[in-house]
């Protein structure tokens, strides 16, 4: 019994230490982001942020679009199979439109970015840690948080909401294609129904989730890279840990935000 309590206590302290490290890193990065902003910041940092935006956003768009299209078609088919029995096939439009705007668009994007860019952040920074490049930056009076973390975080804040929006569009378009082939509903009329189904609150909920997911993915990936100790095998472990932790935290944050929005909308 004592051993079990000792293990639980140790793991609890480790997780609290991890959350504290994330918070410290977040505030340090927010202070360093001033140097990465356009016009007011260092142009080299801004160029690095733009490069990261291309890697996080543009390069990931085909994968996110494919995920959203397949998920939208599946959601429409599963919803139609049940709603058809009640003669409520038109509610498939509401299901797909609201589901992708509030939930599936941000969540699918976050999972894709976590596996693609979160792991890349951990591998890149972990390699820099192993090869002592981070120490070299400090010797040259470059702050690693400002030089490396701030551009990545700024890029994630811009790219992930944009990707979420595109995921929602592709998912809704897939639902429209299903309705066209199953009920011969025209796409223009379908999108008119979609616009009448979505309210501003749904869009804001999706954007808030996207910003939160971007924060989680960027900081978990960077923190795992900064915590690398050892040789190349440690970089592999940090990459795996970055994907696992960020995916878990994204889903946990999604559950928290969905609960909050549910009770706020209910009242």
Topology:
Blueprint: H1 2-32, H2 43-58, H3 61-83, H4 91-130, H5 133-139, H6 144-183, H7 187-197, H8 200-226, H9 232-266
Helix pairs in contact: 1-6, 1-8, 2-6, 3-4, 3-6, 4-6, 4-7, 4-8, 4-9, 6-7, 6-8, 8-9
Task: Supply the key terms.
single chain; 267 residues; mainly alpha; 86% helix
What do you see in this structure?
The structure is a single chain. This protein has one domain (2-266). The chain is 86% helix and 0% strand. The chain has nine helices and no strands. The chain has helices at residues 2-32, 43-58, 61-83, 91-130, 133-139, 144-183, 187-197, 200-226, 232-266. It is elongated and about 70 Å long. The mean pLDDT is 86.
State the distance separating the first and last CA atoms. 45 Å
Going by helix content, strand content and strand pairing, the class is mainly alpha
The number of domains is 1
Number of strands: 0
Q: Strand content of the residues, in percent?
A: under 5%
Report on the biggest sheet.
none
CA gyration radius, whole angstroms: 21 Å
Principal-axis shape equals: elongated
Number of helices: 9
Element order, helices and strands?
Answer: HHHHHHHHH
Compute the average pLDDT.
86
Helix content: over 70%
Q: Detail the poorly predicted runs.
A: none
